[in-house]
Design brief:
By secondary structure, the protein is of the alpha+beta class. It has helices at residues 19-23, 47-55, and strands spanning 4-9, 28-30, 36-38, 42-44, 61-65, 71-73. The relative contact order is 0.30.
Length: 77
């Protein structure tokens, strides 16, 4: 069974650059305030979602394993 992820966007950090839409358009959208939101916070693990989180200029996207809450991104130091 594939991993399931939980995606969160810290809207107080989001600057609306749209990088998440560029990398994972099926997983993110910008609202009327130009802040990112996941289209579905719980999703199958997918490389485009990880890329979106890694390239977010505001570091506003976090990903955890669904169920355990173990961090996927950003990784624990």
């Amino acid at each position: 069974m594939a991993d399931r992820w939980h995606i969160e966007v810290d809207r107080s950090l989001c600057v609306g650059s749209g990088q998440c839409l560029h990398h994972a358009p099926e997983h993110f959208r910008l609202d009327s305030a130009r802040r990112s939101r996941p289209t579905d916070p719980d999703t199958d693990a997918a490389e485009p979602v990880l890329t979106a989180a890694e390239t977010c200029p505001a570091e506003a996207i976090s990903i955890t394993l669904r169920g355990s809450g173990e961090p996927v991104f950003p990784p624990e130091e």
